[in-house]
Amino acid sequence: MDDPTLLSWIERGQNIAALLVALGVAAEFVLGFMAGPARRRVDQAKDAEMVRLVDSSKDLEKGVADAKAEMSKQQARAATAERDLLDLKERIKPRRLTDQQCIAFVGALKTLPSGAINFGYTSASGDEGLTFLNQLLPLFKEAGWEIPEKITGVNNHLEIQVIGVGVLIPDPHNTDHAVVPPPGVLRLNPVETALRDAFKAVGIDVQFINWYSTPSERPELVIGSKPNPAK
User: For the whole model, what pTM was predicted?
Assistant: First the structure.
């Protein structure tokens, strides 16, 4: 192949290469133009998915917060129910001294040997009040105090209301047994003082009430209805 022919083929090859380059550039431009909408749709889809995921995350967080709030309410209601149940148990639990309290009670009564009083309970105290009184009677006997031999010797008061424990103090000048003197008016005798100290030793306050004189002129220990538990 002579030189003119060789140069002719080289020029043709260069032209073909230039054409291919031009076609490649044109194809890249066309394909890029065609890919634009699809790329935008893909990007929009990604953005929409991101928004959806963010919204889902917010909904999930709100759901968790709502669940925690509801759990807190449930726990508060459960705690209230438990307190109410304990309060109810305390209200219906009968009064009874422990062994240590019995020892302290008897010890206080023994400061006045051979004490003599009458005993009673109110109708409002019911069986619970009578049961508590029946626990106390042997303690008075152990301390050397006089107690009735039979339950018939215990007065059942229908005419008065006492909360807790009361002591009726005979007063010949009292004409209305419903009147309760203000604090500090009554002067307690040794028997009444021993009663006060005995119940104080077991954490029970005693009400002292002016009462009509009785033939025995003795104070009377009266077990009233059970007081509500202290808050």
Answer: 0.60
